[in-house]
User: Which sequence fits this backbone?
């Protein structure tokens, strides 16, 4: 796993939060994520990555933060995860992915459209077994959210 | 209107419409025309004759009219067109001759006769028509000549008089025959030209048909090639859109149907990386430049081995490996097009990749397996558990609010070092190599302010180490279940800690060229309570490593010092006043206060300390300070200046204390106490 593939996602996340929500997320210390470990997140967006590295980038939110971000965009209060929230998170993460793409132009890398998973302590099936996964927590004035990245380098012929 | 037309057509073609060939059809039409015209005229004449009370003429006219109507009906029923043509022609000839000789008002019968060549030639064709016409001429001529014969033989005269005719004058006959022949010639000429033209036309038609059939066959062949070939074959026009002709397989290869006029670049977009996409657009553009170097173009094809990633939803991709080739068709004068072919080599590539990944995995697994299989699974399990615990600790710090990067790096370093020590010991080269790299990375950060990115990179390495541990754990689980399935009459639970220490000694003495024996008669693992197990194990292992690396001399050096060639490490456990005491002793060179003093003076960290004024025991205490090392280079076994500090930290973190006793060139001894 090479951090050059991940940094564009971190930067894009910060930029999009600043531009869209006027919130500046502060990146915290990264940590080790174990496959299938429990977590506190309620909704996650998965962006698949293929090409010279394979895996996924996952952005996870708490219900509170996801609802708050949505209400900021739709201009009315939202309290729980409904279709609006799913759509909003999908759209925001899509923009993040699009932003990150610019930073990844020099690599042979493809980024998929995000798909959304919700539910308390939802489990993600990472594309490859035994994938090293690193977690990158963000702190915002409105609560934390989390970016996890699992990538493996492809051995090419 | 249309029905009248259809009726006419039906009547004129005797109901055959378009089914006959052209020539016959034309004849049938003429015949029917003649019949109709003849019928009309004959009934008209018959009626006029009736009015003139010329009953015989009327009967003849009506009979003839009936005859040709019968012919008309017979033709429709029996379709005996040839017979009918001849019958009609002969009948017409006979009637005309009759009229000619009758000879009609003002000899007008001759006028009727003049239409015979036209009728004959058009009806029965050129040659028979001419023959009939000539017969007609002969009859007229003969009859005139016979009419002029006056011989001495009465009988001859009588016969000639019967057969011959004298109704027409010589001039009349000559003119009639002349006109007749001219009409015949023109008709014949016309018929000749017409049939010749017709023949040529038919030939040309046949040629055309043959050519179009040929083309059709070729088209079918091309179509069947396009339909059945496995490769994608296509043409791109100047705006890089697909032409309508492309092979069937293309749709399957690029997962899209109805490609005509679809832009090739639109297909590629979002499936290949941005850079490759731009390169491809530029590349294809070059084909349309009239002075493009086609050989060069073939060499720089950016899609020669393209990887197309098709989005499948759920954040997943379907990857296809496609080999594209492009060629220009057409020359400078004509419009250029690009002929493209594409082959799907996904199965081959996936297989090759899988094979490589599998090989790599197998190789790693075999390596791991070889490394693991030599170690008792209990030791391995303990190693994994300990390593995971270390990583948990690190992760706890990473997840905490701790912002002191120095402290974090130090924590990572110490944990990595501890895991590495055990990994080396167990011969797990992959893991220890990874940890060694990690240590190198952290050491590289020692002299500068570590950034978030640095920490990120280290964490990524940690996840990879964690992952590797997981792989080993899975392997061990397999081995353990394999072993437990075998008969389990094991050789008793020898104390794991001693096994560990023996391993350290065995490994290190080989690597360092030293000879050491372990004396553990006064060691009892039972005295060590579980809560100190890991701490004590880590400490003793570190001390053993230090003893081998720094304390115990090489056999040669020992001989020179009049010591036994083989060094001794002794470990003892003891319960004293409710405390657990562990004594670790080696008979090596001991702490050399002067040497430490000299070394300390070289190290930047003691620049501000007055080394010379310190007592010997104070000097020895320096060894436990961060960054102190007696070696200049780091090896896998020692020398990062962390060993003794680690000992100190571990003991203190476990709630213990320790004392050092040492005599130069004789021994060094650690007495470690833990409350029970």
Assistant:
């Amino acid at each position: 796993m090479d951090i050059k593939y991940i940094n564009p996602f971190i930067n894009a996340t910060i930029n999009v939060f600043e531009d869209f929500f006027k919130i500046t997320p502060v990146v915290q210390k990264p940590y080790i994520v174990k496959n299938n470990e429990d977590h506190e997140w309620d909704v996650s967006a998965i962006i698949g990555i293929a090409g010279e590295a394979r895996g996924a980038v996952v952005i996870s939110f708490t219900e509170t933060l996801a609802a708050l971000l949505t209400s900021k965009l739709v201009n009315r209060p939202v309290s729980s995860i409904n279709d609006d929230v799913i759509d909003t998170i999908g759209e925001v993460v899509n923009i993040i992915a699009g932003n990150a793409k610019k930073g990844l132009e020099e690599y042979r890398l493809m980024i998929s459209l995000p798909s959304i998973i919700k539910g308390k302590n939802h489990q993600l099936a990472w594309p490859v077994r035994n994938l090293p996964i690193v977690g990158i927590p963000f702190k915002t004035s409105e609560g934390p959210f989390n970016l996890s990245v699992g990538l493996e380098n492809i051995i090419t012929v | 209107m249309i029905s009248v037309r259809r009726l006419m057509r039906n009547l004129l073609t005797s109901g055959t419409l378009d089914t006959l060939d052209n020539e016959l059809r034309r004849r049938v039409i003429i015949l029917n025309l003649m019949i109709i015209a003849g019928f009309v005229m004959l009934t008209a004449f018959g009626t006029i004759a009736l009015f003139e009370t010329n009953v015989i003429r009327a009967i003849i006219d009506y009979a003839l009219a009936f005859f040709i109507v019968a012919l008309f009906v017979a033709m429709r029923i029996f379709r005996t067109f040839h017979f009918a043509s001849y019958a009609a022609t002969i009948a017409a000839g006979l009637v005309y001759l009759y009229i000619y000789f009758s000879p009609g008002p003002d000899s007008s019968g001759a006028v009727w006769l003049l239409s015979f060549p036209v009728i004959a030639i058009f009806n029965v064709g050129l040659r028979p028509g001419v023959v009939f016409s000539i017969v007609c001429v002969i009859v007229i001529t003969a009859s005139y000549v016979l009419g002029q014969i006056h011989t001495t033989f009465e009988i001859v005269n009588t016969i000639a008089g019967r057969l011959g005719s004298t109704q027409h004058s010589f001039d009349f006959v000559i003119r009639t025959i002349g006109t007749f022949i001219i009409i015949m010639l023109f008709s014949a000429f016309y018929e000749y030209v017409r049939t010749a033209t017709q023949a040529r036309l038919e030939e040309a038609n046949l040629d055309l048909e043959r050519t179009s059939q040929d083309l059709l066959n070729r088209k079918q062949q091309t179509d069947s090639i396009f339909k059945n070939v496995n490769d994608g074959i296509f043409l791109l026009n100047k705006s890089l859109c697909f032409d309508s002709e492309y092979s069937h397989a293309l749709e399957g290869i690029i997962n899209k149907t109805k490609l005509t006029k679809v832009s090739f670049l639109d297909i590629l977009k979002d499936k290949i990386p941005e850079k490759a996409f731009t390169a491809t657009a530029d590349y294809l553009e070059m084909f349309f430049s009239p002075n493009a170097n086609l050989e060069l173009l073939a060499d720089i094809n950016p899609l020669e081995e393209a990887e197309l990633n098709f989005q499948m939803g759920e954040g997943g991709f379907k990857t296809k490996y496609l080999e594209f080739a492009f060629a220009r068709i057409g020359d400078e004068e004509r419009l250029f097009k690009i002929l493209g072919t594409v082959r799907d080599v996904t199965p081959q590539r996936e297989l090759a990749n899988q094979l490589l990944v599998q090989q790599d995995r197998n190789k790693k697994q075999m390596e791991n397996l070889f490394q693991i299989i030599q170690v008792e699974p209990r030791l391995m399990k303990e190693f994994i558990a300990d390593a995971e615990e270390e990583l948990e600790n690190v992760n706890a710090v990473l997840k905490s609010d701790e912002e002191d990067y120095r402290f974090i790096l130090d924590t990572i370093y110490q944990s990595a070092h501890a895991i590495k020590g055990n990994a080396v010991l167990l011969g797990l080269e992959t893991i220890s190599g990874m940890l060694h790299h990690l240590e190198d990375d952290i050491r590289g950060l020692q002299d500068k302010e570590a950034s978030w990115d640095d920490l990120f990179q280290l964490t990524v390495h940690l996840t990879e180490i964690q992952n590797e541990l997981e792989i080993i754990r899975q392997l061990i689980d397999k081995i353990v279940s394999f072993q437990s399935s075998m008969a389990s009459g094991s050789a008793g639970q020898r104390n794991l800690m001693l096994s560990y220490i023996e391993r350290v000694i065995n490994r290190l003495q080989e690597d360092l060229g030293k000879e050491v024996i372990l004396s553990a008669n006064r060691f009892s693992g039972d005295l060590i309570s579980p809560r100190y197990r890991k701490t004590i194990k880590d400490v003793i292992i570190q001390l053993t490593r230090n003893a081998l690396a720094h304390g115990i001399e090489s056999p040669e050096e020992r001989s020179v010092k009049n010591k036994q060639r083989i060094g001794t490490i002794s470990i003892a456990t003891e319960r004293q006043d409710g405390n657990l005491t562990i004594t670790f002793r080696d008979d090596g060179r001991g702490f050399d206060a002067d040497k430490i003093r000299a070394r300390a003076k070289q190290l930047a960290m003691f620049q501000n300390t007055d080394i010379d004024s310190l007592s010997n025991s104070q000097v020895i205490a320096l060894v436990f300070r961060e960054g102190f090392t007696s070696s200049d280079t780091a090896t896998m076994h020692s020398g990062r200046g962390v060993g003794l500090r680690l000992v100190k930290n571990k003991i203190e973190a476990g709630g213990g204390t320790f004392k050092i006793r040492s005599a130069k060139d004789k021994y060094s001894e650690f007495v470690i106490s833990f409350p029970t």
Notes: Chain A is about 35% helix and 30% strand. The two ends of chain A are 19 Å apart (CA to CA). The mean pLDDT of chain A is 86. Strands of chain A lie at 26-27, 31-33, 43-51, 53-61, 109-111, 115-118, 133-139, 145-153.
